[in-house]
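Human: Here is a favour to ask of a fellow structure person. Comparing notes only helps if you start from a blank page. I am asking you to supply a protein in sequence and structure-token form. Write it directly below this note and I will take it from there.

Assistant:
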Amino acid sequence: MTPLAKATLTANEAAIVTRVPVRQVHRIIDAGVLPLARGSRTIRRNALVGLRLAYLTAGTLTLVARKRVIARVVKHTDTETIAEEAIIIPLKPIIADVEQGLDRLEKAKALVRIDSEIMGGTPCIEGTRIPVHMIADMAAKGESEAALLAAYPSLSAEQIRLAGIYAEAYPLRGRPPLRMPAWLRKAPKTTSRLNIRDLPGS
């Protein structure tokens, strides 16, 4: 079990671990089918399998039945199968999937370093001055892995993939700073070259 597995998780973290879209995580929380950490919307580790199960059975079981199933799963975490309304649900694959998700998130967290002496505390990929959210944003906007590797040769393909996971689990919050950080004021690195003859109207 990873250290992260002992903690409660935010909705964004839980979404990464369980592969449930974060909007659906909030809907499941609002439906009251999950036990939450007292006084918050954070999700206990032993409820993660229940969260995945709630998502998978949304079109199969009624809300009341889903609540019963999840209550049993949370109480008996070593259960391998569960039956409800003539439906038998194998839990071992779901449990294994959640454990893999916890490991994936732990690796993404280990990728990043936050140091006030490096880029003013901007979360950067460990051992570099490259902001993790910048890489994730570039990938999300269509930059290929090959192009990112060419532009940032100090990175690996795994680091680029983990950057996306980290950014989803820990999105930037609040308004953009009034004063742009130095790395944004610099000319951007291009990841491809264009021939002027390829431009429209040439």
Q: What stands out?
A: The first strand starts at residue 81 and ends at 84. Residues 1-5 have pLDDT under 50 and may be disordered. The chain is about 45% helix and 5% strand. The CA atoms of residues 18 and 52 lie 6 Å apart.
